[in-house]
Amino acid sequence: MLEGYRIEGRRAADIAASVERAVGTGELEPGQLLPPMRELAGELGVNPNTVAAAYRTLRERGVIETSGRRGSRVRPKPATTAREYIRVDVPEGVRDVADGNPDPALLPRLGPAFAAAAEHNDREPVLYGEAAVEPELARLARAALDADGVPQGPLAVASGSLDAIERVLAVHLKPGDTVAVEDPGWGSLLDLVPAVGLRVAPVGVDDEGPLPDDVRRVLEAGARALIVTDRAQNPTGAAVGAERARALRAVLADHPEVLLVEDDHGHGIVDLPLHPLAGATRHWAFVRSAAKAYGPDLRLAVFTGDAVTVDRVRGRQRLGPGWVSRIGQRALAELWARGAVDPVRVAAAYARRRDALISALAERGVAARGRSGLNVWVPVPDETGAVARLLHAGWAVAPGARFRMGAGPGIRVTVATLQEGEAGALAAAIAEAVGPGGGRGHV
Question: What's the predicted TM-score (pTM) here?
Fold first, then answer.
């Protein structure tokens, strides 16, 4: 079953460490089935409860997953897998439309902003015990949130959206709690939730965002938290509209104790209005990342929420990293104050590229989704085959398995750097890879 690798240990901690070490080195691969607990207990000469405790530890650490009688296996993207092991290499000469990155040509120059921030720090160094949030960034962020109708609340800064979301979940939930997430949805989030010992409950998504009936179903089944992408949903491009927001708020009104987390990473690259859900429940957080509009390496996200949630996150942050670099925060404030990014121009550029590909696909009878953001989602009947055939044709796309649980197969195409004239060639290659009848009319 383990193709030569022997799990070792007499204590639960040692058994778990043996499995975790093998996953990290690649000796145990994603998807590999582990021995039944009683069988492994017999091999190691220990009580089955010891193996059960080891497997429970591995589940809580996001290394394995258990599916009832189908047994326990290494997760598709375990938390301990080495980064280079899971990286997808794009062969030389193949056009990469899989990476999910923004167009570097649409990102602002960071040099002047960081120079100004550094000069400010030279005059007034930030020392221990000072405010964790740069005052000018807080002022600008609060003004933008007010303009978008996000309720009042204290502000905090994290190292990107995922860091903020993880911290918010950690201060409210305990291992084993269930989190409702979009399906298909952000692959990193789908990996993070089980990695911190939480369970995932998928909710379907259309162009307007999470389906209210699905949200109602999982909340009634006991989900303790709901994570919603407001705009530029990854991978489908969904954006929550006014009517959908009203429907979701009505569902949440019946579950006021549910933790609501909103991800607005599309701020600055989307021209669709924001329809926030914040405030619909007792505990909530609204996260706004700078990654897509200003650059992923800024590693900055501003978030607000109810006083209890933000205070808990700040307190835990103080015990760890303390704060996110105030120099970086001031640099982002400089960029915001200078209007370094024109959201209308950037949104229009990405929209042209999405629309060009979706139209070219439609001409070839292939349905696709991409209402906002950087990506287009194309349902396909055979995901693995489509990815392989496109790679052979010179196009690297992201397999939908990275972004889905129960949703149907598909591929994600990042259009951020798609050049004029490329849409037709890419659409033709996708239509050929999908095959007769595949993807027609199914989104």
Answer: 0.86
